Amino acid sequence: MIRVLIADDQPMVRAGLRQILGAEPDVEVVAEAADGVEALRLARELAPDVALLDIRMPRMDGLTVTRHLAGGPTRVVVVTTFDLDEYVYPALRDGASGFLLKRSGPALLAEAVRAAYAGDSLISPSITVRLLKHVTGPRPVRPAPVEALTERELEVAAHVGAGRTNAEIGAELFISAGTVKTHVAAIQRKLGVRNRVGIAVWAWDTGTVAP
């Protein structure tokens, strides 16, 4: 069971995150905090596997809490409304295992918690795209997919690379979000990547990115 601490100064946000994670069979919310000082105290006292931290909190902000928890048993996933470089880069530099926007949706939230628990990282696709655009130099040579992607899968991968959600991709390609999810799972298997971020990286490395 993955033990999670939720820290956000808005009670409705905490309740929403608890409800989302409470529906996951392998996740347990063990504590909530309304400010950064309380979040740090609970993290040190309970040693949860993952802490979901908002950026802007009273008494101590999420970036400061992240720095205090870096290198310890609790991995941090920042969950915020604010898609700003001044938050993204310090959070990742100071040890956050993930950076999600609150609009990312339940599936990505659960995936980010599991990725952090496993020692992996997951970043909101739209933020990943911006980070990739800052990368300079030649693209690395990547191994060919284990199995060739179909034409439809290439289309879906291109839109994932552009940072679009399943709903947005479905609307663009005139298919359901559920069908997009199925394609995404197949693409991950064929590329040998663990999440949407891996697909986005592959799309950028190969030039397969939708406009």
Automatic annotation (TrEMBL):
Domain HTH luxR-type per the UniProt entry, residue ranges: 142-207
Biological processes annotated in GO: phosphorelay signal transduction system; regulation of DNA-templated transcription
Annotated transmembrane regions: none
The organism's place on the tree of life at top rank: Bacteria
UniProt xrefs under InterPro entries: CheY-like_superfamily, NreC/VraR/RcsB-like_REC, Sig_transdc_resp-reg_C-effctor, Sig_transdc_resp-reg_receiver, Tscrpt_reg_LuxR_C, WalR-like
PTM sites of type 4-aspartylphosphate: 54
Pfam families recorded: GerE, Response_reg
Record protein name field: DNA-binding response regulator
